[in-house]
Amino acid sequence: ISKGPGNSKSSKSTAVPPGPPMYLDLVYIPNHSNRKNVDVEFFKRVRSSYYVVSGNDSAAEEPSRAVLDSLLEGKAQWDSNMQVTLIPTHDSEVMREWYQETHEKQQDLNIMVLASSSTVVMQDESFPACKIEL
């Protein structure tokens, strides 16, 4: 059997390989916060002051409850209790339920979830927005 580039079988790999943590100011959680691409290892390694959570498709499970729970589990393993702000791009049922059910744990881990209460109007279009100062 030939093992050319198109024929090689790959073993299961994680989205973020093991290694030392990376500290960033702002991170967009990839792939509309889908659990296929983001797990606990992501949040253990990619440490940010701000995470943008996209996704507004309940049929595709975006944002994923598993991803939001992974943030809590990953953040609990950090060696510091730095402030983390979660910025949802849409108001979703998944986000609201997760927020209410895990609020105490969020407080313990110093995680704040921004509400989408600000709106920007440009020409004939308006959309939710938030201001981040780094």
UniProtKB/TrEMBL annotation:
GO MF: actin binding; microtubule binding
Gene Ontology biological process terms in this record: axonogenesis; dendrite development; microtubule cytoskeleton organization; regulation of microtubule depolymerization
One Gene Ontology cellular component annotation held by this UniProt entry: cytosol
InterPro entries in the record: MAP1
Protein name, per record: MAP1B protein
Organism whose genome encodes this protein: Dryoscopus gambensis
Organism lineage: Eukaryota, Metazoa, Chordata, Craniata, Vertebrata
Name of the encoding gene: Map1b_1
